[in-house]
């Protein structure tokens, strides 16, 4: 199970998605829908950050989504060493595939 809390900061230029639980299917799709819905309603220039402090596990689909969010400008906060390593490995794999195509 994954809980997604949307928190608007005192600073109106940033919105935080605070996640609790496991980022696995089907919750990956739910996070993506939440994020897309948030982007549609936020004023231009508003930043989005994803708080991962309470996330205990991320499956492969979750890793891909977090990397996509990161590439789209979301700030990932509170990544545990485990999750940070998973994301770094995913980034290295993607970089290796890109270099192999060149």
Question: Could you please describe the fold and organization of this structure?
Answer:
With 102 residues, the protein is α/β, with parallel strands linked by helices. The chain has one domain (2-101): 2-Layer Sandwich (Transcription Regulator spoIIAA). It contains 3 helices and 4 strands, in the order ββαβαβα. Strands 1-2-3-4 form a 4-stranded mixed beta sheet. The longest helix has 21 residues, at 81-101. The radius of gyration is 14 Å and the shape is globular. It starts with a strand and ends with a helix. The mean pLDDT is 87.
Radius of gyration: 14 Å
CATH superfamily: STAS domain
CATH topology label: Transcription Regulator spoIIAA
Q: How many domains is the backbone divided into? A: 1
* Largest sheet: spatial strand order: 1-2-3-4
Question: How is the main sheet built?
Answer: 4 strands, mixed
Unreliable runs, pLDDT <50, ≥5 residues? none
Terminal Cα span: 40 Å
């Amino acid at each position: 199970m994954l809980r997604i809390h949307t928190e608007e900061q005192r600073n109106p230029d940033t919105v935080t998605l605070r996640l609790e639980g496991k980022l696995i299917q089907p919750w990956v799709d739910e996070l993506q829908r939440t994020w897309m819905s948030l982007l549609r309603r936020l004023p231009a220039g508003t930043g989005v950050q994803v708080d991962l402090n309470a996330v205990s596990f991320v499956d492969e689909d979750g890793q891909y989504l977090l990397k996509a969010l990161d590439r789209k400008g979301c700030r990932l906060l509170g990544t545990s060493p485990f999750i940070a390593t998973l994301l770094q490995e995913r980034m290295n794999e993607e970089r290796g595939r890109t270099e192999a195509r060149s």
